[in-house]
Amino acid sequence: MRYVTAGESHGPELTAIIEGIPAGLHISADKINDDLHRRQQGYGRGNRMKIETDQVKILNGVRHQKALGSPITLNVTNDDHAHWGEIMSPTAEETPDNSVRKVTRPRPGHADLVGGMKYQHTDLRNVLERSSARETTMRVAVGSLCKQLLSELGVEVLGFVREIGGIEADADKLSQFEGLTDLKKVTDESETRTFDADADEKMKALIDETKRAGDTLGGVVEVIATGMPAGIGSYVGADTKLDAKVAASIVGINAFKGVEFGDGFQFAKNPGSQGMDEIFYSEETGFYRKSNHLGGFEGGMTNGQPVVVKAVMKPIPTLYKPLMSVDVNTKEAYKANVERSDTTAVTAAAVVAEAMVAITLAEALLDKFDTDAIDRLKAQLAAYKEEIKKY
Ligand SMILES: Cc1cc2nc3c(=O)[nH]c(=O)nc-3n(C[C@H](O)[C@H](O)[C@H](O)COP(=O)(O)O)c2cc1C
Ligand SMILES: C=C(O[C@@H]1CC(C(=O)O)=C[C@@H](OP(=O)(O)O)[C@H]1O)C(=O)O
């Protein structure tokens, strides 16, 4: 499976083309819209989310809600484009009025300056429009489709917020994920599917205070995937390790700076006796573990335990109290450009991280089995699971 997205933040629309989804997979636009809605939630987002109501259009590759096996096109309209028509028109000529509104004061922490140098853009809008996390809308749409595939294969994926600006999410809410092996029970409950759509009260107060100060916040998200069979990925080479692919897919999200699996950076402190997952055997289940310190990976392969990934998002780089920058034309020192911006977007980013893990796990499963048709894929997977159980 592979996919590509296209679209600028204030351009007319966003598109994704996905190739390699097995024929016969049932595809629900409602489920995609549900995840698009989740990505728009979260306390601390800017006014853009009040303008957009992200709804997917499935344009190609699906007939009567079933995948055809041909490339699938997904499309989401940018409602905000109505306010940017001329400036962001793909076809109209540039007017003197538009060129006056060029962005020339790059924002520290954004792609603005280096992107301008690299692509020889003099209007940094040409960089920021694509480097904007608006694009993650399509990754969530693709991820949602992949979650539908994974669910058919017995794999469930959920992302949620652990921490915003140093404040931990409600311990009671988090405790439901500890030691989890069957995510379906959690994801089936609608209340928990919007888990952390709003930050807890302490987080909200911090976000309000930070916004008043013209500053921003980052945080930590977690993604859990249950039901992955052992042996997906491989130890044989650096480019075949599935944990490495998951890490790359997470760091590929705008503003993500670090990833850990299982006990993660805690491994630096704990002795080996507290860091591995001892091996047990019963005839009924085959080999199994009673702990999951390693977050579901050994040797770059899934080991049958839930995949547990945590990741850190840096604070939003655009500040209403802007940092110093230099105008790329005059070379004079100025305050950086201010684009309308979120104070924090960790809640939305948890949904994006969930999507990226879903995409990466779906790709890995599709790499291993015959993927022309969903029923054959399911039969092959079932046979594989039976085989490894009997090992
Ligand atoms: C869901 C989401 C929303 C974001 N919203 C904003 C925003 O409103 N303003 C901003 O400056 N950065 C925002 N970012 C982060 C920037 O897109 C990102 O920091 C920037 O493109 C530079 O990329 P890098 O941080 O990966 O180096 C957001 C990121 C995500 C994942
Ligand atoms: C549009 C989205 O997020 C945007 C991500 C973003 C950035 O720089 O990454 C900057 C802001 O863009 P705008 O100036 O249009 O408000 C966010 O709103 C979205 O998540 O759909």
UniProtKB/TrEMBL annotation:
Annotated function: This reaction introduces a second double bond into the aromatic ring system.
Record organism: Paucilactobacillus nenjiangensis
E.C. designation(s): 4.2.3.5
Pfam families reported for this sequence: Chorismate_synt (PF01264)
Subunit text: Homotetramer.
Cofactor note: Reduced FMN (FMNH(2)).
Keywords carried by this UniProt record: Amino-acid biosynthesis, Aromatic amino acid biosynthesis, FAD, Flavoprotein, FMN, Lyase, NADP
CC cofactor: FMNH2
One GO cellular component, as annotated: cytosol
tRNA processing found in the keyword field: no
Swiss-Prot/TrEMBL catalytic activity: 5-O-(1-carboxyvinyl)-3-phosphoshikimate = chorismate + phosphate
Binding site for NADP(+): 39, 45
Protein name per Swiss-Prot or TrEMBL: Chorismate synthase
Keyword Transmembrane: no
Residues given in the record as FMN binding sites: 130-132, 254-255, 299, 314-318, 340
